[in-house]
Structures are given as structure tokens and as C-alpha cells.
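Annual report, structural modelling task.

Input specification for the zinc ion complex:
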Amino acid sequence: MKLGTYTFQPQKAQGFDFHVLRVKPETGIRLQPAQDMYSNIAVFADNVAARNHPNWISQSSLGPAKMGNNNYNIYWDVVCATQPEHRAEQLNYIADVDKRSQGTWLNSQYFADHGHCICACCNELWKKSGLSWLEWRRKEVTDYIAQIREKVKKELVLCIQPDPVSSYERYGVDFDDLAKYADAFNVVMFSKNYATPWYWEMLARGFKKLLKKPFYISFYVFGPGDNPKDVPSASELLTVSVRCARAGADGFLYLTDNASQIRDFQKAAVEKVELRERLRNYGGQPVQEFLDFVANWEKII
Ligand SMILES: [Zn+2]
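The model returned the following structure:
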């Protein structure tokens, strides 16, 4: 069991095994990588690329993959996943970032969602392929991951959406294809609360059954600009972590804007003495390992 932080700022909180820095989040803004942190890059979700090249935005019969299109869970603009110039630029960027950090964690390395992309370029590629539309999308995603794997010399972790059933139809993602290239997966389970941990545990069990590589789960702690009243409580985070630990997750990441919010979470977690004691009864070795990890924070808080 390994625990990491997942931050927008290049700051490392104490008491974790590793740190992932969002060097290029979906806003498209680029930070300098840090040699002692992993780098996370959103590949096709990229507001800057979409603003500079509006004709690159992924298209569907339910409208473009633009922030504000409520047919989709899209909170940013997404570039077409076959756009050749964006693909080439991202390959070089990923190679450069990989050299300057501990390794590479990618997200949004697939189609925007179901029904994407029907732009002229995609239509032409699909017709030429001779494949069904869904199989053509899968091949586009997998072939690009293979190209990325050649560029990434260090650890490559592929983030996936928390949908174990429909990722093929929605994103063109085949977990077995990706497992050939990924060192590990990161299942992003962001939520403003984890009040019903049963559902998250069920998703974790689903992924444990399907994924052929180790997988992390990322939990939401405190995003940029959040109101402290609107974020998950330490009790919820401890409970959902324990439940997903017993379901077979290989580690967890905790998302915040900066390191001080990670420390706030650690402090609040340490104070939940009674809850941590009760959670000891929730499962075997992985649960005990997670709770031992949290108990170690007592020394640094
Ligand atoms: Zn397209």
C-alpha cells in the first residue's frame, strides 16, 4: 500500500510515499516539472489548446466537448483525440516532462465521452480503417498510448474514469490494451463528499476484478478555490479509504491545491482517534496498513 499527494502546487507534504504534481491540468496552464515529484498531464482536455484552435475541439451529435455542454460531464474543453498537431506536440511535451520528473501520470488520454468524435478528420480516419466505429476509437486510443510508452522512460501511470463498465463505449478505453503499456492505473474517484462509501467500495471491487496492473485511487480533499464547508470531511476520507483498501486498491492519492491543505487533512485525520480505532475492525492486512500509515502522521503533525 502506497500513499501519495496529488497537488496543483509544487509542494510536498511530509508523511507520504510519493507526490504527483499537476504540471498541466485541464486548464492547459503549464508548470515547471519537479525532479522529485511525478508529473500529471491532462492530454486532450486542454482549455488553452481549445482556445487557440477552436476547430480542434472534439465534436458529437450532442454538441462539442466544451465547458457548458451539459450533455456531458465536461468541466473544460476537450481537443479531438486524433488531432494530429496536438498529438505530436503532446508527445514531445510528455517526453520532455518525463525527463524532468520522477515519472508520468496521464489523464484525459482518450476520447471526450460517448459519441465523440465525429469531426471531418475522425470520419475520414474511421472510414479508412474498415473497423466498426467503437473498434476504430479503441485502436486510436491504444495506438497513441503505444507511442507515448516509447517516449516515457520512467514510470507511466494511466488515469481512468471511475466507470468500470462503459469506458470502452464512452472513451474508447480498453483496460487490457492499456495494461500492456501502463505500469499502473489511477482510478479518479473525485467527489465533494464520500457520504455513501458503499458505492465507492463497489467501484473499487469492480476495478480490482478488471485491471491487470496495480491501481491507485485518487480521492478529492480540497480543490483550488473551494469553501472548507463544501469539501469531504476527514471522517469520510478515512472511511472511504479503508473500504477501498479492503476491496484491493494498491494505494491512494489525496488531491489538494497545495501542501497546507494536505496537512490540514492529516491533522484532522489524526484527531479522529475513535473512528480510526473502529475502522481497525473493517478488514485485514490492507486496512491495518492504511491505518498504520495514518497513525504515523501523529509524529509529524
Ligand atoms: Zn475528431
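The pocket of zinc ion is lined by residues 58, 80, 82, 117, 119, 121-122 (CB under 6 Å).
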